[in-house]
Prior knowledge:
Elements (H helix, E strand, L loop, with lengths): L6 E6 L7 H16 L5 E6 L5 H14 L2 H22 L3 H30 L5 H8 L1 H16 L4 E3 L5 E3 L20 H17 L3 E5 L2 E4 L4 E3 L5 H11 L5 E5 L20 E3 H9 L20 E5 L8 E4 L10 E15 L9 H10 L6 E5 L3 E7 H14 L5 E15 L8 H12 L6 E5 L2 E7 L3 H12 L6 H15 L1
Parallel strand pairs: 1-2, 1-8, 2-5, 3-5, 4-6, 8-10, 9-11
Antiparallel strand pairs: 6-7, 10-11, 12-14, 12-15, 13-14, 15-17, 16-17
Amino acid sequence: MNGVVSVQVLKFGGTSVGSGERIRRVATIVATTRRDVEETFPVVVVSAMSGITDQLLRIARLTCVGDEEAMIHEMQTLRQKHFDAIEQAIEDETRRITVRSEIETALTGLTQDIATLRETVQAGQDVMLPTAAVASWGERLSVLLVAATLNDLGVQAAPVRKEVIITSHPQHDASQPFGTVVGAEPQAEATRANAHELIFPLVEREIVPIAAGFIGRTVTGFVTTLGRNGSDYSATVIGAALDCSEVSIYTDVDGVLTADPRLVANARLLPGLSYAEAARLSWFGAKVLHPRTLIPIAPRNIPVRVRNTFRPHIRGTVVGPETLVPSGATAITTHRHLALITVESTDLFGAPENAGHVFALAARAGAAPVAICSSSGHHLAFVVEEQSAESVVELLQNDMDSNEWRVRCRRGLAACACIGSGFTVDPMSPARAITALARERIPVVTQGASELGITLIVEDQDSERALRCLHRDLIAPVIPLVRHAHTLREKRREAR
């Protein structure tokens, strides 16, 4: 290979590499991509095997409380899971022996990090980063397995043993759950330089790099994690650093659907979405893409393709720059267990807007508004997660003069978001959404709108029914086949 090499990033999550059999499947997908002359060169980013990060955090917690026996048991089961995967994924015995040795060496490194964590606890120091170092070993073990399996299939591959992503130094936050790192933000230029140094020499030698997702190294030299669900995010950070042609995120679904298929039987696969539509879907509860995933690549117009590891022949959903032709309702999603908070002035004539102060108080309670439903000079209504409502209301009542402002809260609600880049361009679309709910006698508590769609707040108990009827009337009408067949039979009888 000569000159600048174009690459694509293939990201495989924990479910995709959850067993030796599945690792073999992943390696087959990568091998097929590598051998396809129409495909750009693959750079692979992998997660830990499913359940391993949680197990590593249990090991860290047991170390912190001094339960040595339970910690050793967890270590033994972790080791056995990876050794079992070797037997399932790799056929060549010589290669099995080599990767077993590599796994043993890696586990020695994990043991050393556990010892460091134990010393940190005994010294009474902050355990956040030593815990992150322990949690990082799931990905380090995974890259060894995937690289060895790809080699077993006859494709040259190598694990990238160093952290690719360079982050800022995180801040200590005692309110966060154990093992959560806050503030380790990727540094674009440092990551770009590091990614080029670690990955392109392999690509130039036509060796497929297998890099770890989820983890990085701080500018101060500590191993860190990017937060739970940060694995897809790490793939797009690496993709942006390499100026890749595309990031493919392989998961256990065919792509992004028009609604949750568990609730809507005829949900359809979306061939494409804009970045803004995908971000909106994610914000309102769709779990296919993590909200942060698009941040590194959207400014560079790098598309993300969501694909199914177990059905790789399906091309999935491409998320990319906004198309010139705006769409109507593209997808419907629900966000449940919400509460509506209303802040209303007792002076109905000319009370100054106080939205900034209200939202600052909500932020202090750790509750970002899920949707803002209405705002005027004397009235503000917004929805937050139900579990945060009490603390938000308490702060508002304590801070705002009760003689001038009245704070009310209504719990047990859900947001139904009808999303599409051109949804509100057509004045009939919002009307059809309201009519769909009215036809099913589902009351709308309040609503909000933007250029990307309309958000309808309904009772939580009505949310699934609302989702189905909105999907039926706005996206995919249900054809009553049984009723149609019955009608045909009746007509035939009459004809006789």
